[in-house]
Amino acid sequence: MTMNTGIELGRPIEILLIEDNPGDAEIAREGLESSKVRNKLHVVADGEEAIAFLRQTGKYEEMPRPDLILLDLNLPRKDGREVLAEVKFDHDLKHIPVVVLTSSEQEEDILKSYQLHANCYITKPLKFTEFVKVIKSIESFWFTVVTFSAGPLR
User: Whole-angstrom Cα distance, residue 88 to residue 49?
Assistant: First the structure.
């Protein structure tokens, strides 16, 4: 098993954004485009698409495994809580850091997310400039400060 920070990977950081609001997805894209860390953002709009992407099935079979997941809780078809549970209880996926990035400030959602092993929980700011700052700080933290595994133990 190799331990890396994002800068040491020598390839773009693969980020999966699971977000059904096109406006929020665009803000995240803009925030990440101006980043100092090379990244490739993939966006899916519902929980079922997220699981297909993560398990590399159907139209996603050629997609790379993400290095980081940004997860909204309120999604169609399969909500973010269900996605989080599936990811964190799947041996091949559980090593991927999951940042819950949602509009919910409900204590119940925060507790449930951490019980399901979310790596952190962030409430989306309402202002565009603040949202961009949050996206940049997430990326900076996860890919310049944190050391993480390049994959699951076999």
Answer: 17
Residues 32-86 have pLDDT tens digits of 887 667 788 999 999 999 999 999 999 999 999 999 999 999 999 999 999 999 9
Domains and CATH numbers, the chain: 12-142 (3.40.50.2300)
* Environment class of 73 (CB within 10 Å of its CB; exposed 0-12, middle 13-18, buried 19+): buried
Collect all residues with Cβ–Cβ distance below 8 Å to 32 and sequence separation of at least 6: 15, 39, 41, 135, 136, 139
Q: What is the pTM of this model?
A: 0.83
Identity of residue 10:
G
Q: Are 68 and 16 in contact (CB under 8 A)?
A: yes
| Residue 128, helix vs strand vs coil | helix
